[in-house]
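Q: My labmate handed me this sequence with no annotations at all. I'd like to see what the chain might look like in three dimensions before we decide whether it's worth expressing. Could you predict it?
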Amino acid sequence: MNIRTSKPSNGNKFYITKSRGGYSTCIQGKPADASCNVLSNCVGYACGRFNEIIGTMKYPSLNCNAENFIERAKGLGLTISNVPTLGGIMVWQKGTTLNASDGAGHVEVVERIDSANQIYTSASNYGGTAFYNVLRNNNNRRWGLGSAYTFRGCIINPAIGDVHYVAPQPSVPTGDIEQLARDVIAGKYGNGNARKQALGSKYSEVQARVNQILAGSTPQTATRYYVVQRGDTLSGIAKKLGIADWHTLYNNNRDIIGNNPNLIRANQKLRY
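A: Here is what I predict for the chain of 272 residues:
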């Protein structure tokens, strides 16, 4: 999907009414743009842009009051997300009635997703600007619109799918539990939730050892080692040692083996 950062060009049929040879069933904008006459109007623009991304005017009936786009989209078999999705239509209700007596709402199209709290959109507005881009954040839980508006959701564009912001998952540190525990005590992994996030799936085991060290205890069980023989595989070693899942053996020795579990070498000492 190419980000739209300028007004649709002259002759772009997604933004021109059928009466003038275009694809759109939306009303003319106000003031009507000379080359794309469904602009200025958020509805005409959002309908045009949504279908332009698809590549064909598949959903021309997205042409009701802006705040009613959710119901219209569901009737067309489209899916709604409660967060912005790439190429989707953001829908805001104005007032409380959903019948335009207190406002017709607003729609914009998501062009880029920067974070859970920041997006870049394209839009138009009736009685105003034919085209504009805006960088929106969600600090007010309305994605930057005023207190008269409520964000209702985002219509997922079927040409893109449910592409939304996903927070990157922290990598689990490699290394011996004993060393990780010493690093924790030295302050390397912070405290509280920061430590939990940094240590990931190893948090409980490392924290238990930290508690033992601080209490002056020794590990309940001594670390045992298996020396790799020529021709060994991790699954074969796990079977020899009575370990149900060879992944456990691999995860405990990732700092020795590396990222490829198939590359174990004779004489390596693996912890178990």
